[in-house]
Amino acid sequence: MSHALLERLEISELVQSWALYRDTGDWDKLRQTVHADGIMTATWFHGTFDDFITAIQDAWRKGSSSQHFQGGTVVEVIGTKAIAQTRMAILVRGKLNDVAVDVHCIGQFFDRVEQRDGQWRIAKRNVIYDKDSITAVNPGEPLELSEERLLRFPQAYRHLAYLQSFNGGNVNPALPTSGSEASQQLRLEAQQWLRSPTP
User: Fold this and answer.
1) Residue ranges of the alpha helices (H) in 36-180?
2) Which among 55, 178, 185, 188 has most CB atoms closer than 10 A?
């Protein structure tokens, strides 16, 4: 097996491991998938991975529940840098007033990965959102949504943002979505980073 293929497999396993450790609360192993100075950006969070873990723990104590399901990963490696793109779905269970709801959001993890001291770790994670939906857990329960709140956010993650903002989250309304100018800029900047000389 070639060295290049082994590297791509190692990075793919790294990305797959991140979701499992995050969803099961294995914080020590989750930290081993990222660099200490790594940055995470999602609908409700932007900051270091350590602060991200703290924020997840706080959300869990408040009853938040979410799972990440991942598809295939495509990896491009140049030297000690790589870009990993992974199809994924987020399933979030929460409450709107007294109605239990499920939000299903589809998108892509877009990761900058670096090899430092011989170890591949995630250095920066973004999400490119594609589409989402919301349903009542009990199909007979009426679900009333505020059109004004819905329209604050892009269609690609509108229902996820609705639930998160309804429950006090500070959701960024300008994140990358499939085919958007923001996603094109994200990809351009990542390619420039991938091909730039390592200091």
Assistant:
1) 49-61, 147-150, 158-166
2) 55
